[in-house]
Design goal:
- The protein is an alpha/beta fold.
- It has a single domain, classed as SPOUT methyltransferase, trefoil knot domain (Alpha/beta knot, 3-Layer(aba) Sandwich).
- 46% of the residues lie in helices and 14% in strands.
- The chain has five helices and three strands; from the N terminus they run H-H-E-H-E-H-E-H.
- It has a three-stranded parallel β-sheet.
- The chain is globular.
Length: 145
Amino acid sequence: MPGWVQTAWQEYARRFPRGLALELKEVPLSKRSKNSDTEALRQSEGTALLGAVPRGHRVIALDGRGKQWSTMELAQRLENWMREEHGVCFLIGGPDGLPVTCREQARDIWSLGKLTLPHPLVRAIVAEQLYRAWTITQNHPYHRS
């Protein structure tokens, strides 16, 4: 990942309180070549992503075909997850997106909008939006609408 992605992730992750850690598990991309079978690569990466999800965690897939949530809706969901869930995992696909198997395993499919975003940028956006949602639940002044 480019340095700016790591910096953004670390900046937002460090802001979370101890009891609500934002952790990152990176799954390596499959090797690509000019003649690669894109669907096979996507399936392989999806299997690795699902294999990295701890038992009992809620799975949320990020996919453009999912439902868009406002920041306030995300804050409400975060409050529910903090109260009811053991943990939540957000699956961000590689350059070819997520396979159907990941979307089928997800309890929610979240779309960040109609734009196609590079997966490194999605990582930074998700970290910032989760932090923003948390600040809303805490009546912290970070979020201004």
